[in-house]
Amino acid sequence: MAVKCRQCGSFPDSALYGSIPEHANDAGFQVVAIPSAANCRSRKQTLLVFMPQSDGENQRELPGSLPGHSSGLLRVHGNIEYDLDYRSNIDTPYAEKDIYQHTIQTYLDITVKDQYPVRLYFTNRFSNSSLFKNFTNLNLQYNPHAFSNSVRVALKNELLKRTRFNDSIRLTKQQLDLATTELLKLEGWKNSPSFFQQELAEKNARVLKSKGVKLPETQVQWQDSITDLRRELPNMNWPGKTDLGDVDFALLDSIKAQQRAGVNNNVAADTLSLAEKLKKNEQLIDSLRKKIQLLQAAYNSQKSKSAVSSNNSAVTANSVRTVAELDSVMRTNHIPDSSMPKGYRTLFAVRSFGVGRNMIDYSELSAKNISVTGVEAEYNPSYYAAVATGVIDYQFRDFIIQRKNAPKQYFTALRYGWGQIEGNHVIATYYTGSRQLYNSSTVLPGTVTPSSRVMGVTVEGNYMINATTALTAEVAKSSLPYYNNGGTNPHSAAGVTRLGDRSNEAYSIKINSLVRATGTRLSAFYKKYGVNFQSFSFLTTGTEQHAWMLKAEQSFFNKRLTITGAIKENDYNNPLVATNYQSNTVFKSIQATWRMRKWPVISVGYFPSEQLTKLSDSAYAQNLFYTFVANISHFYKVGEVQTASSLVYTQFYNKATDSNFVYFNTRNILLNETVFLKRFTLQGSASIATNSSYNLYTLENDVQYTVNSWLRIGGGGKYNRQTVIEKVQWGYKAEAMVNIKKLGGIQLMYDKGFIPGPDKKLVPNNIGRVSYFKIF
Description:
Number of strands: 29
Radius of gyration: 42 Å
């Protein structure tokens, strides 16, 4: 190692091994401080010592490892939010005034003992509307994805310990470090004190010899002669005495020091001249360089193999999906159970567990897209088991509508099977409960709405044709409706066991595939329902029905252009329509999207649309029509200013007779421009809506200003002109966002605008919002 005084720059006697390389830190050296040596001229500072760094890779903690022990039982992260929304007028299909809606919501990620993750959701929504549903959601849910990911990370870390930092790599690294250190010493010898001392000693010797002074040959003689020379030379009277000034008597001591210290690392013996030592030094340098080259090549090769092995370890860990696969990897690599959380085998096989409101999506013919307040759990080690039970709250498509005096609906399901839910499996499902089949929202007031028990069984099989193609088929048989069960008890399961009756059966088959060679995504299904079939995923009854769908997605021009197309028939269920509702309409949809770097994104689509209209307190109407949408959006810079532009064209293909939408058969063009400055965000838009009756022209602008880190304010104006009334109507908007440290954020917004009203006129509509949120 090389030692140098930080204060005076001198090299003590114990540091005659070479100078400090300028690139020391870049060459893998570290700097440490030690007390200064007694022979340092400053005598009070520290010395800088440059030493090869140890290979700390084997001590480095790998990213993503399981969290360590914490002092507390729980660690909580999440957010809480409160919203108050006000509408002076609801849009025409609902026609309500002065509606206040409150929403309280929280989402918490809770980790128990730093290893076991759960999630807590809570939502409470209530309003003064007679139409919109008031509800409270509470769900405490085990987070299987977070836990399984933490197990995979722990597994990867254990695999890396066994494959990445092995003994051969460490040994080669140590040898390489020693050789590199030796090379630095030899290369630095020319600039070391020992070199300068011998060079000056030989210079002094040449001067003395030129004056006729006989030099000693041994170290003892040197020690005696230096003393004599210091005493006698000034008194000697011989020619050229004045030339003795060329002799540096102070440096004569360096000759003695050189003889005493010797030359480092076998550079040369004491008897060698400086030229001979330089030659020997160069030979050693050449030899070390060749050795370092070989060691570096070996080290790089070993590291490369280790990197491949590490990558394989990561792939192996990430590919583990089942308990059997996890056990196999741990057993093969001799990984102890102690490296994993307690109970990891059981928890790794839990696919879901929730208490409170749970979304159930089991199969096409048993229960799909329903919300149940109760308990739900799925467990899938080598076999599959699931249970769910509770009260049905709403389905995805009708949760907005508030039903008055609707009978309670209950749901219970038991599932058991073999295989993995993501792979090949066969699962049998038994479902039962009570559901409202007979459309309480469409019957006349005062009419008794019967409610009956539903019961059924299904068998579903999934087969992975290859890694990207899955074929799923399911058959089901249910109990008979109360009006067609032969007068038996409505709770009877006789219909399920009546094997000769096909009217209460249903069939489903679907396929999903990705063609990797072309990047094509394909999906299709076909479902057939008997006239008496009942389940919690099929909303209508009383008529034999079928539904089918074909969908394809394909990319072109190196994924710049993506085209998605679909065609389907009767794939729509709504509890608000008649019991024997059946649609034979074939819906088509197509969408094309173009993406290219530094160019605008262009998207064009043609989609079926629907509108639900309230006709009375007990009746609703559904209207179906098509919509064409095209848009161009671009995010770019003008100088140093960031800008976003979008142009949207929309057209509804409907008529006044099939829709309560005032803008029937309307074409709309919207241009929006946003400019992002340092503290300002400027937004402006212009739109034109045209149809056979009138034109509507709208201009809007909005300015937001960031005052500081905790305050943002904004506002804008609106211009509306409709050709029917030929009157300009003005609106405005104001908003503010305040972030209070440790308290949270508060958002205030008020908007005066207009919505379609009677006689094709615009009526005022005031919107207000107060929002509070806190992230912790």
